[in-house]
Design goal:
This protein folds into three domains: 145 residues, PAS domain (Beta-Lactamase), CATH 3.30.450; 83 residues, Signal transduction histidine kinase, dimerisation/phosphotransfer (DHp) domain (Helix Hairpins, Orthogonal Bundle); 147 residues, Histidine kinase-like ATPase, C-terminal domain (Heat Shock Protein 90, 2-Layer Sandwich), CATH 3.30.565.10. The chain is α+β, with helices and mostly antiparallel strands. The chain is elongated, with a radius of gyration of 48 Å. It contains twelve helices and twelve strands. Helix 6 packs antiparallel against helix 7 and helix 10 runs antiparallel to helix 12.
Length: 447
């Protein structure tokens, strides 16, 4: 990782140095050209008042060749009347030269042309005179390629120094940047860091939090596996033991019927446990999508109570439904599962002759589902953990009543899947009430 970051830093710095050097040279050359044009414009303004005889007689005084200057006087028709560098008689008509055409139209004009003879660029400035003739002043100049060649050693040396400096800084900064992460990787369980960049502190805290979550999940899975093994072992042991007695002919008549009944009960418990484990595994898939539809909660609750009427009657428990019709957008199967688990628990942990009341109503813009019983209640110290998997307040009663210890864990998952809120209120000896608040979602148009 360090090597890759260093290579990227050096590549970017080298590219930046190259672009900066080229941009600087182009900018310098542009400024240089503007300065040359300003100079030859000033020469033209100085030379303009002088007559042709002065140019011819005082050439040495003006030092035209030494200064790289060339003066040309062109008539209005393009004929060359005078040139300081060549015999005007041998020169062609200049009427098509761009600087001459521009000067005749606008009063002054400029142009740059390449000279194959001198291998230089010549910058021309032309100015129209009062009599219609054009005075042109030219100056030879190096092009940008020549300037770059002359400065190549300096540019290369400077660029190399900058790139090496960037490479050193890249190595130093990369090591400083990754140091907290490397230290964290080697000691994820440490409580703090000696020095952490303020900007990456949230990132490091997130890594530590994710690490803690992974450890917690691993611990929970380990506990879950141990609990599942223990819970499965009990009914399987019972089934195996009773079946062995019957197979060995050690049970006959009434004993055989009793053993068969115990096998049947253990099988039912085993199936219930397996079904609950499968359901939890499905709910644990965070990315699983559930089909949503309009669910009339009051009617669904009535169906659940009708289904559990026989179970409640065995314990002399009265089932009641209160409230009003309420519609939520939810997964019908999951809400049915939620109602079944809450009502089943309310019946299972109730007192003989008690009651279970299911209420549906709208409160403060949300749909409220309440399941209230008159059962044994839950002590305060157990209420925070009651929704954990396989957690039981009274383990002996749970097993006698056929509970798997997973019902409320399933309820918690279903509530989370529907972004609902859940409130538990319970007092030992008085009863328990679980209230779930569903948000009134906008009903999809295709439902």
């Amino acid at each position: 990782m360090k090597k890759k970051i260093n290579i990227h830093f050096i590549t970017v710095s080298a590219f930046a140095v190259l672009i900066t050097a080229l941009a600087s040279m182009l900018l310098f050359y542009g400024i240089f050209q503007d300065q040359v044009f300003d100079d030859i414009r000033a020469y033209a303004h100085v030379i303009q008042p002088l007559d042709k005889q002065f140019w011819e007689q005082e050439t040495n005084l003006l030092r035209l060749e030494e200064d790289g200057l060339r003066i040309t006087l062109i008539a209005e028709d393009g004929t060359v009347k005078y040139d300081s560098s060549m015999d005007e008689g041998q020169m062609d008509n200049h009427s098509r030269r761009p600087e001459i055409q521009e000067a005749l139209k606008k009063g002054e004009g400029t142009a740059i042309r390449w000279s194959a003879t001198s291998s230089l660029h010549t910058l021309y400035y032309a100015q129209r005179l009062p009599d219609g003739a054009v005075l042109r002043v030219g100056k030879d100049s190096q092009n940008i390629a020549q300037i770059l060649r002359h400065m190549a050693v300096l540019v290369v040396a400077l660029s190399l120094v900058i790139v090496l400096l960037c490479a050193y800084l890249s190595h130093f900064l990369t090591r400083r940047l990754l140091w907290p992460i490397e230290k964290l990787a080697s000691a994820l369980d440490s409580s703090g860091q000696d020095t952490i960049y303020e900007e990456i502190e949230p990132f490091i805290q997130m890594i530590r939090q994710q690490h803690d979550n992974i450890l917690n999940h691993a611990k929970m899975r380990q506990e879950f596996t141990a609990n599942v093994s223990h819970e499965l072992k009990t009914p399987l042991t019972a089934i195996s033991g009773y079946a062995e007695l019957i197979a060995n002919g050690m049970a006959a008549g009434e004993d055989a019927r009793r053993f068969a009944s115990e096998i049947h009960l253990s099988s039912d418990r085993l199936l219930s446990l397996i079904n609950d484990i499968i359901k939890l595994a499905e709910l644990d898939e965070a990315e699983q999508d559930f089909d949503l539809e309009q669910v009339e909660l009051h009617r669904l609750a009535q169906g659940c109570l009708d289904m559990m009427d026989v179970q409640a009657a065995k314990q002399g428990i009265c089932l009641k439904l209160k409230g009003e019709p309420c519609t939520i957008v939810a997964n019908r199967a999951l809400i049915d599962e939620l109602l079944y688990n809450l009502c089943s628990n309310a019946i299972r942990y109730n007192n003989q002759g008690g009651s279970v009341t299911v209420t549906t109503a709208e409160e403060n813009g949300r749909v409220m589902l309440s399941v209230k019983d008159t059962g044994i209640g839950i002590p305060k110290e157990h209420q925070e953990r009651i929704f954990e998997r396989f957690y039981r307040v009274d383990k002996s009663r749970s097993k006698q009543s056929g509970g798997t210890g997973l019902g409320l864990a399933i309820v918690k998952h279903i509530v989370a899947q529907h972004s609902a809120d859940m409130v538990l209120e319970s007092e030992p000896g008085i009863g328990t009430e679980v209230r779930i608040f569903f948000t009134l979602l906008e009903i999809p148009s295709d439902l």
